[in-house]
């Protein structure tokens, strides 16, 4: 299962990831990304990677176990 990582220090709160994968990413009251899941099924990988790539500051990654 792919593992999700978020660099909260880099996050600027653009929320592109939330628009692309609202079941995986959210933004807290301080405008910082929150991972709703730390792992996603392989069948969701492409969608979640696209959401991660939509981050303008590259704060999100999807890694292999």
Automatic annotation (TrEMBL):
UniProt key word Transmembrane helix: no
Q: What does this protein do?
A: Ferredoxins are iron-sulfur proteins that transfer electrons in a wide variety of metabolic reactions.
- Put simply, this protein is called Ferredoxin
Q: Which UniProt keywords apply?
A: 3Fe-4S, Electron transport, Iron, Iron-sulfur, Metal-binding, Transport
- Which organism is this entry from? Actinomadura decatromicini
> Kinase among the record's keywords?
no
The record's InterPro entries line, in alphabetical order, gives: 3Fe4S_ferredoxin (IPR001080), Fe-S_cluster_ET (IPR051269)
Swiss-Prot/TrEMBL cofactor(s) = [3Fe-4S] cluster
| GO MF annotations in UniProt | 3 iron, 4 sulfur cluster binding; electron transfer activity; iron ion binding
Q: Which Pfam families match?
A: Fer4_15
């Amino acid at each position: 299962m792919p593992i999700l990582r978020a660099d909260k220090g880099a996050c600027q709160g653009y929320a592109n990831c939330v628009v692309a994968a609202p079941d995986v990413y959210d933004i807290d009251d301080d405008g910082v990304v929150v991972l709703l899941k730390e792992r996603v099924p392989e069948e969701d990988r492409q969608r979640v990677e696209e959401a991660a790539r939509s981050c303008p500051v590259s704060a999100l990654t999807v890694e292999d176990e």
